[in-house]
Amino acid sequence: MNNVMLITGGSRGIGAATAQLAFEAGYAVALSYRSDRDAASAVVEAIEAKGGEAIAVQADMASEANIVRLFEAVDERFGRLDVLVNNAGIVDQVSRVEAMSAERIERMMRINVTGPFLCAREAIKRMSTRHGGNGGSIINVSSAAAHRGGSGEYVDYAASKGAIDTFTEGLAKELAGDGIRVNAVRPGVIDTEIHASGGNPDKPETSSANIPLGRAGNAREIASGILWLASEGASFTTGAKLDIDGGV
C-alpha cells in the first residue's frame, strides 16, 4: 500500500494541485470537499485515469461530525494515514473590522482554526506512535496575511492564519516525540478562485506591482512546498513556516 495523504479542501486551487503532485510522488490520495462534488470528482478521476488511487469525501470543516466521518472514510478505504494537509479555509468579503458581524468572525474561526485543530486531532490518533501509529506529517496551510495583518481587507482572515502559525509551532513541539512532524506553508497572493469568493477576483493582477518577484504565484508552486515538507527531504524540519510569497 502506498503512503496516504489526506488533503482538506482538495477540489480546487492549492488543494487540487497538491492532490496531483501527491499522486505523482506515489501517494494514494484522499481529499475532502464542502459542496462542489463535480470538481472533487474531476480531481479523483484525473488521478485514477493515470493509475493512481484517490477518493473524495464530502465534509464541511465547520462540522465536527463531518470531520470524524471524513477520517473514518479514509480508514475504511486505505486503512492508514501518513500525511494530513490542512488546506481547507475561507475568506469573506473585503471589509474593515468595524463592519464585521460576530457571525462572520465566528464562522471564519470555526472553519479556519477549529476545523484544522479537529483534523489534526483525528490524524494524531491514527499516526502518533503514542497511539500505535507509524508517525507521519501534518502540513498546515497558513498565509502571508498572518504576519501582514490584512488591514482594510480581511483582518479576521489574517488573525485566523496567525492562529494557525501558533498552532503549528506548538503542535510541532508537542508531537516531536510521537513521530509526527508539523509544519506550515505561508502562501502570498496566489492565482486561485479564493479571491473571487472574497469579492476581489482581480487581486492576483492588481497585487503584482507590490510583489518583489513581480507576479502572483500559482497553486502548483505552493503544492511543491507542501510535498517537500511531507517528504524525507524535510525529515529534520518541524515547526517551520515556509514562506512562498514572491518576497513580500
UniProtKB/TrEMBL annotation:
InterPro entries the record matches: KR_dom, NAD(P)-bd_dom_sf, Sc_DH/Rdtase_CS, SDR_fam
Entry's EC annotation: 1.1.1.47
Enzyme class: oxidoreductase
Chain positions covered by the region annotation Disordered: 193-213
SUPFAM superfamilies to which the protein is assigned, alphabetical: NAD(P)-binding Rossmann-fold domains
Pfam family name, one: adh_short_C2
Similarity comment text for this entry: Belongs to the short-chain dehydrogenases/reductases (SDR) family.
NCBIfam families, per the entry: PRK07231.1
Protein name: Glucose 1-dehydrogenase
Lineage of the organism: Bacteria, Pseudomonadati, Pseudomonadota, Gammaproteobacteria, Oceanospirillales
